[in-house]
Amino acid sequence: SAVQTVTKMKVGCLLAGVMSGAGGALLLFRLASLTAKCCSTDPTKHSLFSAVLAKKPPGDDSDRDYCDQLHRHMLLRRTGVRLCGVLITFELVVTAGMRTCVYIPMAVSVIASFLKGGYS
Hints:
Blueprint: H1 2-39, H2 48-54, H3 61-76, E1 82-83, E2 86-87, H4 90-116
Antiparallel strand pairs: 1-2
């Protein structure tokens, strides 16, 4: 019947919205793991930043100045994957994933109700 078709359509749209939000979050998760490999300060992790900090400073003054500048630069500017100037971190991925898994299905259901002929 028509009521069952509309209900199945709503459920399908909601599932599609949640799956697309989760899929986008999974793709961003891979980028966030690359960012973690660049800027993690944990000495037990194999990251670019921890490798720079672990390197022994050279004896030459000009090389030591260069190392100090490199340390300062890495402390002030986090390295990693950036999209449109935004650093992709695990916190960003979780926030974006939760929002898209909630907002996309909500938007789809509102649009579907307007197309159906009224808000129910």
